[in-house]
Specification:
Layout: E1 8-12, E2 23-26, E3 38-41, H1 47-55, E4 60-63, H2 65-69, H3 71-81, E5 86-94, E6 99-102, E7 111-114, E8 121-124, E9 130-134, H4 135-144, E10 149-153, H5 160-171, E11 175-178, H6 188-192, E12 198-201, H7 209-217, H8 220-241
Parallel strand pairs: 1-2, 1-12, 2-3, 3-4, 4-5, 5-10, 10-11
Antiparallel strand pairs: 5-8, 6-7, 8-9
Helix pairs in contact: 1-3
């Protein structure tokens, strides 16, 4: 992370020797015995599998399907291993909106009514099954149980950026975001308009330095505004004491 930017960027894959980087790896049989420093994303892994990985030294285990199917598993792991070592991960997609013709509420006219009144995301299980669970609410519930991180894999466009900004405003740096099915998506709007500050990139993502600089620069206006506000507050404080 550059000192001038509040944006933190990590990549999927094993940690590089002699470099202090945040490591995210997906759970599989090929994981090394020593998982020191790694955030392991379980996918369809169980609570028992999470305990095995924690015993092998994983810095943090992020439950996905297991947390969706049984939130008490999250509570047990937080109590047993501490909040800093437990997180959740989810796949999210734009919530489907259907429309129906309302012919009952008013006899004088008919109108189309949406199935949901607000745009949002739905959680998808690791096998691709739609869960029907609202992602925004679920993330809040998991963080309330004490987990220290939520990784959201989603392909954001347009109004998705408002959803992202709302989540970041509510939960801050506990949230990481990563592209799901579009690894080469333009991430500059995610940072500029979605306000995310924790970004996980695919290991094989071949973004050049120019693009990376553009993504990092998108985080700067918010930081500059914060610096300006701090300066004003400091000046007002000085004036009040004179």
């Amino acid at each position: 992370m550059h000192e001038e930017s509040p944006l933190v960027i990590a990549r999927w894959g094993a940690p590089v020797a002699d470099r202090e980087e945040i490591c995210f790896v997906a759970d599989d049989a090929a994981l090394p015995d020593d998982l020191q420093g790694c955030n392991v994303v379980l996918g369809n892994g169980s609570e028992a599998r999470a305990e095995q990985l924690l015993a092998r030294g994983a810095a943090r285990v992020l439950l996905a399907d297991a947390a969706m199917l049984d939130s008490t598993a999250v509570s047990r792991l937080v109590q047993g291993y501490g909040a800093e070592r437990i997180g959740v991960a989810l796949l999210a997609t734009k919530r489907h909106v259907s429309w129906s013709l309302d012919i009952v509420s008013n006899a004088d006219f008919r109108c189309l009514t949406p199935s949901v009144g607000k745009h949002g995301w739905e959680i998808v299980l690791s096998d691709g099954t739609a869960s029907g669970t609202d992602a925004v609410c679920w993330v809040g519930e998991m963080l309330a149980l004490g987990v220290s991180m939520a990784l959201i894999r989603v392909d954001m466009q347009d109004e998705d950026l408002n959803t992202c900004a709302g989540l970041v405003e509510a939960h801050g740096n506990k949230l990481w975001f990563s592209p799901w099915q579009r690894p080469d998506a333009d991430l500059e709007p995610w940072v500029r308009y979605g306000q995310l500050r924790r970004l996980l990139l695919p290991a094989a993502n071949a973004r050049d330095e120019t693009e990376m600089a553009r993504i990092r620069a998108a985080a700067m206006p918010a930081q500059e505004e914060l610096v300006a506000e701090t300066a004003v507050e400091a000046a007002e404080g000085v004036g009040a004491t004179v």
